[in-house]
C-alpha cells in the first residue's frame, strides 16, 4: 500500500488519559523528538493534584498538550488538532478544546461499560458509537489488546506489567503518523531501564508495534510532516521552566564565585528546582531539605549571612509562611533569592494549576513597610535569565529578591538557544575584608551611592558586629527606637529598592508602534498569549503594542513615559487584577484589566476578542 | 562543639561590647553572660570565628553584648538560621542562645530537627519557666496550675521536660546547669564546646520580675545539697548535705537510699555519660520537689554524650566525593545538556 505525505505548518496535539496511563511521559518523549528536529514548540502539561486519583474518573484525567510548528510558537495553542484519548473520561474532559474537524485517537478498551460509567456517560451511551462525534475523524484502536498481543512472548510479564506499556504503543503510532523515527525514545528507554532487560525489550517491542500498526493498517493513508522552524541560527536544546531556574542559579553561582545554598521544603509546583539542583553537587551546591517552609528560608538566611548565595523555593502557601523571615532579610539587608512558583490559591487552592495571584503578596504581604525587588519570568527559557538577574540584584544591592514564576512556566518546555558560559556577564561581588584607613570601628550600615551596606561575613577579623530584626541606627547598626531614626530607615529601605531602577535595563516594547491606540502590558506567563494575540491584530492593521515586564518592582524608569504614548492600557492577568492596580497607583493611568482565574492560561483567541472591542 | 585554632590571648573583657546591657537588674542572664564571656577566651577559637545566633525573648538580646559575630533573629528561628550557617560554614563556632518559649514553643520544631541532624553547634536554653519579654505569661516549661497573667485560675498545660525532649530528638550532648553556680556553668559550657555535635544545654535562669525563685530550691544554700544531684563521670550518684544519700538502680527504677547500714557508695548507680539507656532514666528524674516523699533530686551536669556524624561534615563530604569522582561541574556542559540541534542561517 502507499501512504501520502502531507506537510503541515502547525499542529496542536493533546495526549490525555488516566493519571496512571503515562501521558506526561508520552508527551515529553514526543516533545523531545520534535525539538531535536528543529521544529518550534510549546507544551502545557496539565495533571491532577492527586498522585493516583480514582482510576477512570473525570478528575483523574492527566493531559499533555504540545504545539509544534514550522513557524514561531509562543503558546501551546488554544484548540487541539489531535486528541489522544486513552479512556472515556479523557475524551469527555478534552473534547471541548478539539477543533471541529480534529482527529480523535481513541483507545476503545477505555470505553467499556465501566469506563463510560466512571466518566459519567448515561447508561448505554458510548460516544464512539452514537454518532455524537460526527465531524471529527475518529480513529479507534484497541491499544490494550494490541499491546498484550505484542507482548505475548514475554511470558515472564504479568498482565498488569504488559498493560503498563500501552502508552508506548500510542507513542509509536503517533511517531508513525508524523513520520518520525523511534531512536530518541529507544535511547531514553535504554537509559531508564538499562539494567532491566525484559522491561526494556518489552517497551521497545510495544513502541515498534505501535509504529508498525500505522504502517500496515490500510486505514491510514496519510502521514504528516512539519518542517523545521525558522528560528534564529544557533544551537538549541529543549528546556523546562524549573530546570531553567536551576541552571540560572548555577550559572550565577559560577559567575559570581558564590556557592549556592538552597534551603527549601517540598511543595508543588516548585519541588523540581530542588530535585534539579540536588543533582549538581559537582558545582559545590548545597541543597537542604528543611523541616518546614520557615526553616527553608531561615537556613538560607543563615547561609547568606555566612557569605553563600542563599536561595529558597516555594509556592503560595509556603510564601505565606516565609513572610516573617523575608522581613528579617529586609532588615538585615543581606542577599537572598526567594522563588515563588505560583499556583491556584488561596490556601491549598489548586496545587497543580497555574495562577498569577501572588503579586500583591510579593509586593505588600509582610508586616511593616517592607519593600523588596520583584522580578518575573515570562517563558520556560526566560527563567534562566531571570534567575541570573535575581542573583545579580540580590548581591549587588544587598537585598532579598522575589522571583515569580508559575505552574504553567514551571512545567512547560520550549526550545532554548542556550548561552555559552563565557558570554555570561560576570556578577561582581564585594565582601568587606578589613577596616578602611579612616575607619575606627566597623559600621555595618554605612552605605554607598546605591544605599547598599557592606557584606562582612563571619570569619573576617576586626569586623565583628551584630545585626538583627530590631530597628537599627543608620550607619552603626545599633538598636535604636528614636522616632526620627525610624522614619529615616523606613525611607532608606524604600529608596534603596527604588534605586535599583537605575541599574536595570529600560523597558522595551515587545512589538508594535511606540505611540498608538492600545498598549497591552503583561507580566509572567501570559507572554505567549499576549504576543500571539497582538501579532494577529497587528497583521490585521490594528494599532496595538505589547510591553512585557520582567522587572515588576521597581518598574523600569521609562515605563511611565511609554504608557503616556497610548490612549488605552490593557493588563491581562490570571488573577483578579493585581498588576493593574499597582500600575494605576504608580502612574495614575486608567488601565483596563482583563482577568481570568480558572487555573489555565489565558488564550490568544479570547485576548483577540477583548482587544478588538477596544480597538 | 569543638573548633580548635590558635587564638591570641584574650580575656573576658575582649568579649564585651560597648552596648549597655538592658536586662532587668538582678536577672539571671547577667551571670550567664559573664560565664560565657569568661569561657570564650579559653576555648581556642579566634573571636571572628565565633557566631552567636538568637531568636526572640529576654535571653535573645545576648548577641548584642558579645563582641563576636552575632544575629538577633526572629522568634523561634535561631536554630534554623544557625543550621544554614553551619552547613555553609562548618569551620565557624556557632552558639545558639534561646529561651524556654523560643526553643520549646514557637521554635520547637526547629529545635528537634537541629538535634536530629546533629549540627556541630551549642544550644543554650535559658529556662526561666515564664515568658519575660511579653511580661509574664506561663511558658511550655511552667509547672501545672501556675497562676500568671494569662492563667488567672491556674495553667492547665503539662510542661515539657526539655532534656527528655532533646533525648527524644537524639541529641548527642545533653546537660543541665544554672545561673547561680558560675563554676558549674563554666564547666558545662566548656564541655559543650568541646563536644563535636549538637550540644543541648538547659540553664536554669531566675526571672526575678515575673517568676522569682522558680529554682530557689536548687540554688540556695539551705536546700541545694538535698535537692541537687551533681553528675560526675565514673562517680556514684551521691547527694545530700553530708553526702549521705544516693541513687541506686532497682531494675529500671531509680531508688533514693541512705548510705550506711550496709549500703555503701559501691552499691550506687555509677554515672556513665555514654550509657544511652541509663541517660533516659536519669533525664526522667524530674519530680516536683515540693510534693511528697520518694522524690528524686534534680540532676545537674552532663547527662549524655555520644559521637555521631555531623550534618555539615557529611554534606561537605558528599560534595567532595562527587567532585573527586565526577570532576568539577562544567557550566557549558550543563547548559548544553544531552541533546541539541542546530539551526543554520
Can you describe this structure?
The complex is a heterodimer of chains A (615) and B (345). Chain A has 615 residues and is α/β, with parallel strands linked by helices. Chain A is built from 20 helices and 23 strands. Chain A folds into four domains: 4-226, Pyruvate-ferredoxin oxidoreductase, PFOR, domain III (Pyruvate-ferredoxin Oxidoreductase, domain 3, 3-Layer(aba) Sandwich); 237-423, 3-Layer(aba) Sandwich (Rossmann fold), CATH 3.40.50; 430-504, no CATH class; 509-614, Rossmann fold. By secondary structure, chain B is an alpha/beta fold. Chain B contains eleven helices and twelve strands. In chain B, the strands form two sheets. Chain B has an eight-stranded mixed β-sheet with strand order 2-1-3-4-6-5-11-7, sandwiched between helices. In chain B, strands 8-9-10 form a three-stranded antiparallel β-sheet. In chain B, α1 (29-39) crosses α6 and α3 crosses α4 (108-117). Chain B is globular.
Short description, anyone?
The complex is a heterodimer of chains A (615) and B (345). Chain A has 615 residues and is of the alpha/beta class.
Q: What share of the residues of chain A lie within helices?
A: 25-40%
- Sheet with the most strands, sense and barrel status of chain B: 8 strands, mixed
Oligomer kind: heterodimer
Question: What low-confidence regions of chain A span 5 or more consecutive residues with pLDDT below 50?
Answer: none
Overall pLDDT level of chain A: 96
CATH homologous superfamily title of the domain at 12-219 in chain B: Thiamin diphosphate (ThDP)-binding fold, Pyr/PP domains
Measured by residues with Cβ under 8 Å of the partner chain's Cβ, the largest interface is: A-B, 74 and 59 residues
Strand order of the largest sheet of chain B: 2-1-3-4-6-5-11-7
Structural class of chain B: alpha/beta
Q: Compute the CA-based radius of gyration of chain B.
A: 23 Å
Amino acid at each position: 500500500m502507499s501512504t501520502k505525505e502531507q506537510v503541515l505548518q502547525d499542529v496542536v496535539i493533546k495526549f490525555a488519559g488516566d493519571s496512571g496511563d503515562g501521558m506526561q511521559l508520552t508527551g515529553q518523549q514526543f516533545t523531545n523528538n520534535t525539538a531535536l528536529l528543529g521544529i518550534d514548540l510549546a507544551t502545557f502539561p496539565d495533571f491532577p493534584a492527586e498522585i493516583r486519583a480514582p482510576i477512570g474518573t473525570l478528575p483523574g484525567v492527566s493531559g499533555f498538550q504540545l504545539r509544534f510548528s514550522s513557524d514561531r510558537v509562543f503558546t501551546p495553542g488554544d484548540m487541539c488538532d489531535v486528541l489522544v484519548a486513552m479512556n472515556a473520561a479523557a475524551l469527555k474532559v478534552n473534547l471541548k478544546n478539539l477543533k471541529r474537524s480534529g482527529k480523535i485517537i481513541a483507545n476503545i478498551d477505555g470505553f467499556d461499560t465501566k469506563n463510560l460509567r466512571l466518566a459519567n456517560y448515561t447508561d448505554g451511551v458510548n460516544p464512539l458509537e452514537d454518532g455524537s462525534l460526527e465531524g471529527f475523524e475518529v480513529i479507534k484502536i484497541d491499544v490494550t489488546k494490541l499491546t498484550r498481543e505484542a507482548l505475548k512472548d514475554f511470558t515472564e510479564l504479568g498482565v498488569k506489567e504488559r498493560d503498563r506499556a500501552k502508552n508506548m504503543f500510542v507513542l509509536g503510532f503517533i511517531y508513525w503518523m508524523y513520520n518520525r523515527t523511534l531512536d530518541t525514545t529507544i535511547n531514553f528507554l535504554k537509559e531508564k531501564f538499562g539494567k532491566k532487560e525484559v522491561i526494556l525489550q518489552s517497551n521497545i517491542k510495544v513502541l515498534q508495534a505501535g509504529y508498525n500498526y500505522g504502517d500496515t493498517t490500510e486505514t491510514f493513508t496519510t502521514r504528516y510532516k512539519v518542517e523545521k522552524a525558522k528560528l534564529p541560527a544557533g544551537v538549541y536544546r529543549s528546556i523546562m521552566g524549573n530546570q531553567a531556574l536551576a541552571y540560572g542559579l548555577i550559572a550565577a553561582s559560577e559567575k559570581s564565585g558564590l556557592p549556592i545554598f538552597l534551603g527549601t521544603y517540598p511543595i508543588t509546583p516548585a519541588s523540581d528546582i530542588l530535585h534539579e539542583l540536588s543533582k549538581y553537587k559537582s558545582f559545590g551546591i548545597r541543597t537542604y531539605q528543611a523541616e518546614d517552609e520557615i526553616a527553608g528560608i531561615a537556613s538560607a538566611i543563615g547561609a547568606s549571612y555566612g557569605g553563600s548565595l542563599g536561595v529558597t523555593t516555594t509556592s503560595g502557601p509556603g510564601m505565606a509562611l516565609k513572610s516573617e523571615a523575608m522581613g528579617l532579610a529586609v532588615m538585615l539587608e543581606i542577599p537572598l533569592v526567594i522563588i515563588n512558583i505560583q499556583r491556584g490559591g488561596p490556601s491549598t487552592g489548586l496545587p497543580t494549576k497555574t495562577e498569577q495571584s501572588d503579586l500583591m503578596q510579593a509586593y505588600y504581604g509582610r508586616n511593616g513597610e517592607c519593600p523588596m525587588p520583584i522580578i518575573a519570568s515570562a517563558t520556560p527559557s526566560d527563567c534562566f535569565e531571570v534567575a541570573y538577574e535575581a542573583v545579580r540584584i540580590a548581591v549587588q544591592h544587598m537585598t532579598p529578591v522575589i522571583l515569580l514564576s508559575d505552574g504553567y512556566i514551571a512545567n512547560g518546555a520550549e526550545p532554548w538557544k542556550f548561552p555559552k558560559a563565557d558570554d555570561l556577564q560576570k556578577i561582581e561581588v564585594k565582601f568587606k575584608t578589613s577596616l578602611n584607613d579612616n575607619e575606627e570601628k566597623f559600621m555595618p550600615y554605612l552605605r554607598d551611592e546605591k544605599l547598599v551596606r557592606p557584606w562582612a561575613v563571619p570569619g573576617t577579623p576586626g569586623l565583628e558586629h551584630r545585626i538583627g530584626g530590631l530597628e537599627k541606627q543608620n550607619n552603626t547598626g545599633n538598636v535604636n527606637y528614636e522616632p526620627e531614626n525610624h522614619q529615616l530607615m523606613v525611607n532608606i529601605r524604600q529608596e534603596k529598592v527604588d534605586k535599583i531602577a537605575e541599574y536595570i535595563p529600560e523597558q522595551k516594547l515587545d512589538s508594535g508602534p511606540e505611540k498608538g491606540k492600545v498598549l497591552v502590558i503583561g507580566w509572567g506567563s501570559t507572554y505567549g498569549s499576549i504576543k500571539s494575540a497582538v501579532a494577529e491584530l497587528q497583521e490585521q492593521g490594528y494599532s496595538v503594542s505589547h510591553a512585557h515586564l520582567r522587572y515588576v518592582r521597581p518598574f523600569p524608569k521609562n515605563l511611565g513615559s511609554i504608557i503616556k504614548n497610548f490612549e488605552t492600557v490593557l493588563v491581562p492577568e490570571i488573577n483578579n487584577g493585581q498588576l493593574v492596580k499597582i500600575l494605576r497607583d504608580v502612574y495614575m493611568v486608567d488601565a483596563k484589566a482583563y482577568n481570568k482565574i480558572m487555573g489555565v492560561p489565558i488564550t490568544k483567541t479570547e485576548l483577540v476578542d477583548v482587544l478588538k472591542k477596544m480597538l | 562543639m569543638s573548633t580548635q585554632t590558635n587564638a591570641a590571648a584574650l580575656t573576658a573583657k575582649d568579649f564585651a561590647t560597648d552596648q549597655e546591657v538592658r536586662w532587668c537588674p538582678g536577672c539571671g542572664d547577667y551571670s550567664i553572660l559573664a560565664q560565657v564571656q569568661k569561657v570564650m577566651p579559653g576555648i581556642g577559637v579566634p573571636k571572628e570565628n565565633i557566631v552567636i545566633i538568637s531568636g526572640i525573648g529576654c535571653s535573645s538580646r545576648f548577641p548584642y553584648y558579645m563582641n563576636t559575630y552575632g544575629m538577633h533573629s526572629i522568634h523561634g528561628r535561631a536554630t534554623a538560621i544557625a543550621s544554614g550557617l553551619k552547613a555553609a560554614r562548618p569551620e565557624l563556632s556557632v552558639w545558639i542562645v534561646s529561651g524556654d518559649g523560643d526553643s520549646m514553643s514557637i521554635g520547637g520544631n526547629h529545635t528537634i530537627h537541629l538535634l536530629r541532624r546533629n549540627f556541630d553547634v551549642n544550644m543554650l536554653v535559658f529556662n526561666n519557666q515564664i515568658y519575660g519579654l511579653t511580661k509574664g505569661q506561663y511558658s511550655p516549661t511552667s509547672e501545672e496550675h501556675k497562676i500568671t497573667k494569662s492563667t488567672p485560675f491556674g495553667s492547665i498545660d503539662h510542661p515539657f521536660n526539655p532534656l527528655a525532649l532533646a533525648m527524644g530528638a537524639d541529641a548527642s550532648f545533653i546537660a543541665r546547669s544554672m545561673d547561680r553556680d558560675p563554676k558549674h556553668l563554666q564547666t558545662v559550657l566548656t564541655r559543650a564546646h568541646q563536644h563535636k555535635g549538637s550540644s543541648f544545654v538547659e540553664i536554669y535562669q531566675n526571672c526575678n520580675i515575673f517568676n522569682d525563685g522558680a529554682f530557689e530550691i536548687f540554688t540556695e544554700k539551705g536546700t541545694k545539697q538535698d535537692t541537687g544531684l551533681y553528675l560526675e563521670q565514673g562517680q556514684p550518684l551521691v547527694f545530700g548535705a553530708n553526702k549521705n544519700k544516693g541513687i541506686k538502680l532497682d531494675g529500671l527504677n531509680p531508688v533514693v537510699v541512705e548510705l550506711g547500714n550496709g549500703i555503701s557508695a559501691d552499691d550506687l548507680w555509677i554515672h556513665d555519660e555514654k550509657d544511652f539507656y541509663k541517660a533516659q532514666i536519669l533525664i526522667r528524674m524530674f519530680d516536683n520537689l515540693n510534693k511528697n516523699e520518694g522524690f528524686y533530686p534534680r540532676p545537674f551536669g552532663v547527662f549524655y554524650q555520644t559521637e555521631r556524624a555531623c550534618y555539615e561534615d557529611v554534606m561537605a563530604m558528599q560534595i567532595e566525593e562527587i567532585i573527586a569522582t565526577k570532576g568539577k561541574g562544567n557550566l557549558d556542559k550543563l547548559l548544553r545538556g544531552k541533546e541539541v540541534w542546530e539551526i543554520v542561517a
